[in-house]
Amino acid sequence: MLEVTNLSVSYGGLRALTDVTLSVKEGQFVTVVGPNGAGKSTLFKTISGIVPPAAGQITFMGTSLFGLPPAKRAHLGIAHVPEGRQVFKTLTVLENLEMGAYPKAGREAWHHTLDRIHTLFPILSERAGQLAGTLSGGEQQMVAIGRGLACAPRLLMLDEPSMGLAPAVADTIFERVSQIHREDGVTILLVEQRVAEALELSDHGYVLETGHMVLDGPYETLLQDDRVRKSYLGLS
């Protein structure tokens, strides 16, 4: 479904990503982990078209994404839930979800998708008329994920969905993301610092450090790697 090949990205002369290669097959749950500043968010921004690449190739469903603006990529079925939630604070919860349904697939499936979002996150139905900026952090994250689902995506990219949330709220978010994958068959690409939980959900994981992919494999393989065990899982 998604193929990233030898991708390099530079910011102001500094290399943020170098020869990064990643593959996501349809129906998979793939996680990218790594420390702060490793380039994880840059990778997502480049896939969604916010940041231009310096070299390499990205294809989605066999179509090259280079030269396509972010809106066109959304119409192909790529939804990006950004780091820090970034809800439209002066719009209501419902209006935020409606903004996500802009692509054709989202408009066509709107009533079904809205019901599904409310099933996953019942609080969003209760708060439909409330301004998103007045919600708690966890509720805003639910809005951000719901907005991503509203476009009826083929690929849902989630950037640090647990960031800044209380552990119990983060656990709920993880369970809902897993549910979206299991029950709806949505392909998931996740960036997350709660490494153990994220990798455990995944079919395949990648470790990104200082702009380089240093390791990848299924959860069981990564769990056996000494660097992953020590640096990310706190195991000796």
Can you put this structure into words, describing what you see?
The protein is of the alpha/beta class and 236 residues long. 40% of the residues lie in helices and 25% in strands. It has 11 helices and 10 strands. A 6-stranded mixed beta sheet has the order 6-7-8-3-9-10, sandwiched between helices. A 4-stranded antiparallel beta sheet has the order 2-1-4-5, with helices on one face. A hairpin with a 2-residue loop joins strand 9 (204-209) and strand 10 (212-217). Helix 3 (93-100) runs parallel beside helix 7. It is globular, with a radius of gyration of 17 Å. The model has no long low-confidence stretch (mean pLDDT 94).
Oligomer: single chain
The description of the largest β-sheet is: 6 strands, mixed
Q: Given the structure, what is the number of helices? A: 11
Class by alpha and beta content: alpha/beta
End-to-end Cα distance, whole Å, is 36 Å
**Spans where pLDDT lies below 50 across 5 or more residues:** none
Give the strand tally. 10
Radius of gyration: 17 Å
| Rough outline | globular
Tell me roughly what share of residues is in helical segments: 25-40%
Percent range for β-strand residues: 25-35%
Order of strands across the widest beta sheet? Answer: 6-7-8-3-9-10
Order of helices and strands: EEEHEEHEHHHHHEHEHEEHH
* Arithmetic mean of pLDDT: 94
